[in-house]
Amino acid sequence: MRKTYTYAITEAESKYLKTGMRVAVPFGKNKIYTALVFNIHKKSPVLYVAKDIHQILDEAPVVNQQQIKHWEWISNYYMCALGDVYRAALPSAFLLESETIIFKNDAFKNDLELGDDAFLIFEALQNHSQLTINQVCDILDKKKVLPIIDELIQKNAVHIKEKIYEVYKPKLIRYIKLKDKFNNTDELKTLLEKLSRSKKQREAVLLYFQLASNSKQVKVKELQDKANISLSVLNTLISKNIFEFYHLQQDRVSFKGEVSDLKVLNEHQEKAFLQVKQSFEKYSVSLLNGVTGSGKTEIYVKLIKEFLDKGKQVLFLLPEIALTTQIISRLEIYFGDYLSVFHSKYSMNERVEVWNNVLNSKTKAQLVLGARSSVFLPFSDLGLIIVDEEHENSYKQFDPAPRYNARDTAVVLGHQHQAKVLLGSATPSLESFYNASEKKYGFIHLNKRFGNIQLPNIELIDLKEKYKKKRMKGHFSDRLIQMINEALNEKEQIILFQNRRGFSPVVECTTCGVSPQCPNCDVSLTYHKYRKELKCHYCSYYRAMPNACDACGGSTLDSKGFGTEQIELELKELFPDINIGRMDLDTTRGKNGYQKIIRAFEAQEIDVLVGTQMLSKGLDFKNVSLVGVMNADSMLNFPDFRAHERAYQLLVQVSGRSGRSKKRGAVAIQTYNPYHQILQQVSTNSYVEMYKEQLQDRWQFNYPPYYRIIKITLKHRDYLKVDSGINWLAKALRNSFGSNVMGPTEPVVSRVRNQYIKNLTLKVPPKQSLLKTKKQIQKIMEVFEAVKDYRSIRFIIDVDAY
After folding, report:
1. What is the mean pLDDT of residues 730-749?
2. Pick the CATH number of 267-321+333-342+366-451 from 3.20.20.30, 3.20.20.190, 3.40.50.720, 3.40.50.300
3. pTM, 2 dp
């Protein structure tokens, strides 16, 4: 909800209730939802009569005051509803909603009055004491069932009530213990004599003592397995009043703490570490710019140790879940007893447990490692925030709201807690580097790789020339094949990078040139050969690969472009004896998807790993000596003012996976334009040159870091409605902001899930008040939504877009 609502409470409830507790409240006609106590006051609402709350759901607040303050900042800065932030922040198990339960009215006898569908439901209630809305949908095989239920209510055939379900269930482990009276030696002797004829029962008692000598608590499962007895034997002992069961709650995810000394830093790392500490004395935010493979993680580890020793909480943010796999195993060695992990691949129950542990400041959640959603956790004594790979685009949430940037949100979170924030990257974002050069942030540069290994040798391969001279095998040039052979002969591993999944992005008929399109989006379907299907990467629509063209019936279909699947198949043909792995969205589904591939590659079970951009982010593989970029041009030729910056970052990051421990690595970048300035800067590792060049362009064309950008998007199924709405909006915004309004424009994919999309971009000059600008946009938005024809159009605001 966009605004807060007032509910009535009794005087007794007011003494018990605290800000941050959850309450169940009636909303609308008869639905009950979970609300969060935002404020307790004595002002009655003017426009409506306050309803009573339904019930209090918590004994103590689940959200603390600092969180609410942080959420308000997110809501105001990113122009989204506080309800959006609340829904995104809390694990879904906390957001209880009621379910309508339908009961039969025993007094109703005139079932002949009912329609066919209503009669079917009434008949089902003869055999069931109650039905839920979902069960009614299943019985009738319909989605719209409310009119039928309404008919039953009107004729007094049924009555309904709302039931709230508690979603989170703690994990309880069953333990067993001997009754206290048998702690006496004489009683125990008598017991064993009594059980002399019951061999299994006697064995269970003796083994219990053996296990109890090693550990105070004995698990039922452990006793069963070791004594090789069934549960019925233990139940018999319980019925004889010898044993008793009890339950203890256990966290679903826990890490074993191993007592290990921290690695000794080399002179460059030690110097950088001392510079970070000095920087923290002057600045609350510092940027650590360390080349790939320079050992930034070891500096983080030493900093974490210092803050944990002070009793402070530490948040370690990573852009990609794939990265957590390696970092967990490294941090667990030093801080296992303090470590908790929080990201979307963990189950709802696991996330609730981490939330509660952080809320209660438990030792096991003093160090939290997580993806962007970790900034919402209920920290109370935060001392340090580390944002690793701070340049990553994955830190930005694009859909749904709140459309926040986790890096910027973490900086504000650090400020609110008076904590120190360390941004780390080999290729910092232009904004962060600009802030450091303007002395807003502290700056530390680490320009030597660990072990003084040189940065990899980068070779640009001209595809135009290779195709002309017929030196290509599929999508592999003769030079890349030669380099792969050399690495394989040395028993070294290889990473091949292609930033597109699937087999090929377009399938085209060779007769008429038509390619299969997604029926819901304006985009061609991607061919996935492994599943023999065509798939849309926007709405997940899929269909079987056709044998003939849908338009002309032609039997020859040709694939254009290539993805990771095609590279994998071509590799198998070129090198049939090697083990090939693939790491993209298709192969990393499920909680342990990343883990399996990364561990197999670390164990050298895979010789060549083919993957998308998730390979480029901070992973550390000791035996990789060659990185191949299959085609660099797709990243450079993209309609986005950040395209060149992102291409540089991605290519330098993926190159940095090569030659990290033994000797200098090699990188082969295949391109049609080897003289492109970005590729030349990548090959010479000239970050500052790229930064100055891009900054000049940004200044010339009024882009960040000089101007702020607010993007407004309209979406609707009716193209004419969206077109009319965006033109009205463009006029209204131009009246207020003049030439700083760009558009209207259509994005590259202008229809997704049958919704047409139109954009407007507003550039906010440095001297213009951002607060006043947002207020004016809010006013225009309210007028827009008051127009009857435009009310159904989805209005999306994205602050600091792109």
Report:
1. 92
2. 3.40.50.300
3. 0.81
